[in-house]
């Protein structure tokens, strides 16, 4: 059985190298901006708990927005393999994290990806890496879903691609309407996934019940 989404989030998906190292300078301009923010909030950036927070925030934001410095083409390079296969391939429950471009608060959840090969397949881990390329940017879930689908369609020259993403948005959980259990679901269907109702139904059945 799948774990509840919030349990998945609580397990900690991100790298453990985001902590500050004493004496290390990371991005002095960014650190200065964070320091100013702390002062604006009425905090003392020199107190023990905050003395390295500007560096930690700079490192964390660099990681969380690393997708701007990544290329999906480079990610999948050398990971496409010729294969005489035309049956649907599905990878589901791919965890992802991103930042909402409206409030720069996290949204996180699972992605489900399916495609119909057209003479070649892709290494399974590369599907998750393509998602990370676009998730590690300031995003809208709707755009993220489309970008993943269009990129896989292009690099695979696939007959069809389907992507469904479900996520919890912290701009709805922590502020505003404060609805902790709300989920947003988006989909992008290309090629036969859009044109053929049976193909689309098979994909949705696989990601829902397996």
Give a structural overview.
There is one protein chain. With 210 residues, the chain is an alpha+beta fold. The chain folds into two domains: 5-64, GTP Cyclohydrolase I, Chain A, domain 1, CATH 1.10.286; 71-209, GTP Cyclohydrolase I, domain 2, CATH 3.30.1130.10. 40% of the residues lie in helices and 23% in strands. The protein is built from nine helices and seven strands; from the N terminus they run ααααββββαβαβαβαα. The chain has helices at residues 5-10, 28-40, 53-64, 72-76, 124-135, 141-156, 170-173, 192-195, 197-209, and strands at residues 80-82, 89-100, 106-116, 120-122, 138-139, 160-169, 184-191. A five-stranded mixed β-sheet has the order 5-2-3-6-7, sandwiched between helices. α5 (124-135) crosses α6. The chain is elongated. The relative contact order is 0.14.
Overview features:
210 residues, alpha+beta, GTP Cyclohydrolase I, Chain A, domain 1, GTP Cyclohydrolase I, domain 2, 5-stranded mixed sheet, two-stranded antiparallel sheet, 9 helices, 40% helix, 23% strand
Topology summary:
Blueprint: H1 5-10, H2 28-40, H3 53-64, H4 72-76, E1 80-82, E2 89-100, E3 106-116, E4 120-122, H5 124-135, E5 138-139, H6 141-156, E6 160-169, H7 170-173, E7 184-191, H8 192-195, H9 197-209
Parallel strand pairs: 2-5
Antiparallel strand pairs: 1-4, 2-3, 3-6, 6-7
Stated plainly, the CATH topology of the largest domain is called GTP Cyclohydrolase I, domain 2
Helical residue percent?
Answer: 40-55%
Total strand segments: 7
Q: Beta-strand level of the residues, as a percent range?
A: 15-25%
> Structural class, from helix and strand content?
alpha+beta
Compute the CA-based radius of gyration.
20 Å
**Overall tally of structural domains:** 2
- The CATH class of the largest domain is Alpha Beta
Number of DSSP helical runs = 9
Q: Terminal Cα separation, in Å?
A: 9 Å
Low-confidence stretches: 8-16
Major sheet strand order: 5-2-3-6-7
SSE order, as H and E? HHHHEEEEHEHEHEHH
């Amino acid at each position: 059985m799948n774990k509840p989404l919030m349990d998945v989030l609580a397990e900690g998906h991100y790298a453990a190298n985001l902590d500050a190292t004493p004496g290390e300078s990371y991005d002095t301009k960014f650190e200065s901006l964070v320091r100013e923010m702390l002062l604006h909030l009425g905090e003392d950036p020199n107190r023990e708990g905050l003395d390295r927070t500007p560096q930690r925030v700079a490192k964390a934001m660099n990681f969380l927005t690393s997708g701007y410095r990544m290329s999906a083409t480079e990610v999948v390079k050398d990971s496409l393999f010729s294969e005489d296969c035309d049956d649907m391939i599905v990878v589901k429950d791919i965890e992802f994290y991103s930042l909402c471009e409206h409030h720069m608060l996290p949204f996180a959840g699972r992605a489900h990806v399916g495609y119909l090969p057209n003479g070649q397949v892709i290494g399974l881990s590369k599907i998750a890496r393509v998602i990370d390329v676009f998730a590690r940017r300031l995003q809208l879930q709707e755009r993220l879903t489309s970008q993943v689908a269009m990129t896989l369609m292009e690099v695979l020259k696939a007959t069809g691609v389907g992507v469904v993403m479900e996520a919890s948005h912290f701009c709805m959980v922590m502020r505003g309407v404060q609805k902790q259990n709300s989920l947003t679901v988006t989909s992008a269907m290309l090629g036969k996934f859009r044109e053929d109702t049976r193909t689309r139904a098979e994909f949705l059945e696989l990601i829902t019940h397996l």
